[in-house]
Specification:
- This protein has about 450 residues and is α+β, with helices and mostly antiparallel strands.
- Helices cover about 15% and strands about 30% of the residues.
- It has two domains: about 120 residues, Immunoglobulin-like (Sandwich); about 300 residues, Metallo-dependent phosphatases (Purple Acid Phosphatase, chain A, domain 2, 4-Layer Sandwich), CATH 3.60.21.10.
- It has seven helices and 26 strands.
- The structure holds fe (ii) ion (FE2).
- Fe (ii) ion binds next to loops.
- Its EC number is 3.1.3.2.
- InterPro entries: Calcineurin-like_PHP, Metallo-depent_PP-like, MPP_PAP, PAPs_C, PAPs_N, Purple_acid_Pase-like_N.
- Belongs to the metallophosphoesterase superfamily. Purple acid phosphatase family.
């Protein structure tokens, strides 16, 4: 009887992802998160302890393997003592290399001074022609995070394979001496520890803290591929998609000219290379925090009715810095996702304020399609609409939620907007399709 109960408990723990030969201790890891490494066969594991390890000789590491009862491989972690206004913590980073494609790995993070529970993730298949789903959203707060339960359930049920959080975390990572960031990342652990969590910074990562995005830079890892070792802009490939993370914040931050120009140089080069590589990654999708096509209420992004300097600055640039739209048009970017305004909006294919609506505009689109998915949920509430839809606005809904982008193959994407205010139903959807080898001839 005892034995049966023991087996039952073990199985129950396994079903929760909790197996474990090792016990948690006072210095146990927390806030475990994973992200894609530079090498497609790698995964980066990060975690935090609030105290330093007791013994300076203790080696933090990740132990991992395909058998949850036998984590036979290990990778040592670096330690970053992260000191910030009001506090400090220790952040560990380990990179698991040479992983087998399409394989579930189990892992524990920590050291002999305390181990995490056992978590798992699944690597993507090899090559570039496989289907998967990416969850995309911005503006997810520590309070009133309407999408949180759906994302948590979605991660547990493998409804998506990777996440792209396009700015504004926790509200804010630095608030209350970083404690809000810690609370949010503890809550997000069940999602972040199992699905690669790719990020780009928003205004809440720098606004008012005067700390130069320091929590964003220290708490997250992205596969940086720029010469500036800057995690604010980077790109990566998953299957048939080339993703580009772009900082809209550099257009609003101090010292605008050198930062924007550095990013722009990198961006043009990256997009040109990607556009010449369509045979491998036919899709190019960008993510940036703030929109420049938005018919929503927030005047600080790009409402065409309320024309102000900031609206067109990020879109078109000025005499000192270039804007973002031209390289997106020139290099035939397929979709751009952004947030910042806390509602949903889908555009028609649009370039230079002109919408292309004839026929099925989403088949062989003549210009980029923009999706505002900044309504994951936070204490600032809905942005709302105060103006009629702009001519390029195809759909807008003032509800919280997030995007599921189903990447089917080289010719078909299917986008669903999940309604977190209505039990996770689909509030909008669209197929983006193109003929094999389609080349946009915008000009
Ligand atoms: Fe924002």
């Amino acid at each position: 009887m005892f034995c049966k109960i023991g087996i039952f408990l073990l199985v129950a723990k396994l079903s929760e992802g909790l197996v474990l030969p090792r016990q948690a201790a006072s210095n146990a890891p927390e806030q475990i998160r994973i992200s894609l490494g530079k090498d497609p066969n790698s995964m980066v594991i990060m975690w935090t302890t609030m105290q330093a390890l007791n013994n300076p000789l203790t080696v933090p590491q990740v132990v991992y393997g395909v058998n949850p009862f036998y984590l036979k491989s290990s990778s040592n972690a670096s330690i970053n003592k992260f000191v910030y206004s009001g506090g400090q913590q220790y952040i560990y980073t380990a990179t698991l290399q040479n992983l087998t494609p399409a394989t579930r790995y189990y892992y524990q993070a920590g050291s002999t001074e305390g181990w995490s529970l056992t978590w798992n993730f699944t690597t993507f298949p090899s090559g570039n022609n496989f289907p998967y789903t990416v969850a995309i959203f911005g503006d997810l707060g520590n309070k009133d995070g309407a999408s949180y339960p759906f994302l948590k359930q979605g991660a547990a049920n493998n409804q998506f394979d990777i996440i792209f959080h396009i700015g504004d975390f926790a509200y804010n990572l630095f608030t209350n001496d970083g404690k809000v960031g810690d609370e949010w990342m503890r809550e997000m652990q069940e999602i972040m520890a199992t699905k690669p969590y790719m990020v780009i910074a928003g205004n809440h990562e720098w606004e008012s803290d005067n700390m130069n995005f320091t929590h964003y830079r220290n708490r997250f890892s992205v596969p940086i591929n720029n010469a500036y070792n800057d995690s604010q802009f980077y790109s990566f490939n998953v299957g048939p998609v080339h993703y580009v993370g772009v900082s809209s914040e550099y257009y609003f931050y101090e010292n605008v000219v050198p930062l924007v120009n550095a990013q722009y140089q990198w961006l043009v080069n990256d997009l040109k290379t990607a556009d010449a590589n369509r045979q491998n990654q036919p899709w190019i999708i960008a993510g940036q925090h703030r929109p420049y096509y938005s018919s929503q209420k927030d005047d600080s992004c790009c409402n065409e009715v309320v024309e102000n300097y900031l609206d067109y600055f990020m879109k078109d640039g000025n005499s000192t810095v270039p804007g973002l739209e031209k390289p997106y048009i020139d290099n035939s970017v397929d979709m751009v996702f952004w947030g910042h305004v806390h509602s949903y909006e889908r555009t028609y294919p649009v370039a230079n304020m002109t919408a292309y609506k004839d026929g099925n505009p989403y088949h062989n689109p003549k210009a980029p399609v923009y999706i505002c998915t900044g309504g994951a949920g936070n204490q600032e509430g809905h942005t709302g609409f105060t103006h009629p839809p702009s001519p390029w606005s195809a759909q807008r809904i003032d509800r919280f939620g997030y995007t599921l982008l189903h990447v089917y193959n080289n010719t078909h994407l299917y986008m669903e907007q999940i309604d977190a205010n209505n039990n996770g139903t689909v509030m909008d959807s669209v197929w983006i399709t193109k003929d094999p080898g389609f080349q946009r001839n915008f000009w």
